[in-house]
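Batch job 17 of 40 flagged for manual review because the log was empty.
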Amino acid sequence: MAIVKLDKSRLSEIEDLWKELNLHHHRLSSNFKQYFDTLTFQDRVKQLVCKESLSLFAASDAGAYVGYCIATADRNRGEIDSIYVKASHRGQGIGHELMMRAMEWLRAQYCTETVIYVAEGNEQALSFYEKYSFTKRYTVMGKIKD
């Protein structure tokens, strides 16, 4: 298992993993299935590349990517924008390694605040983020156009 840092021009290399994560969110969501149905990888990339600085870490096993983490920094605010590990590779510390690399990169970007947005339905991920000292700060509610 190797963790590699990829340039943002290589985001397309994790498209299949991102689609798995999007499907995961779709399955778990009670209220926003339509959002995940219509969200495309290309739309997500457009949202990410406009940020000041982006870092992509990918976990590779036998030449295939099995996980990734995208972190962005905008001024002194960092974000873990997306993190995913294939179900077949969970429990092996890959998520931890990806998170540690992303957090180190954010520190090097002088981020004084780091946020993670957790999709409705994916609350089981909260305990993972709490291991890295993230705590709930806001509850954001949303509504998709009727």
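Reviewer: the log was empty due to a logging misconfiguration, but the result itself is present. The longest helix spans residues 94-108. Unflagging and moving on to job 18.
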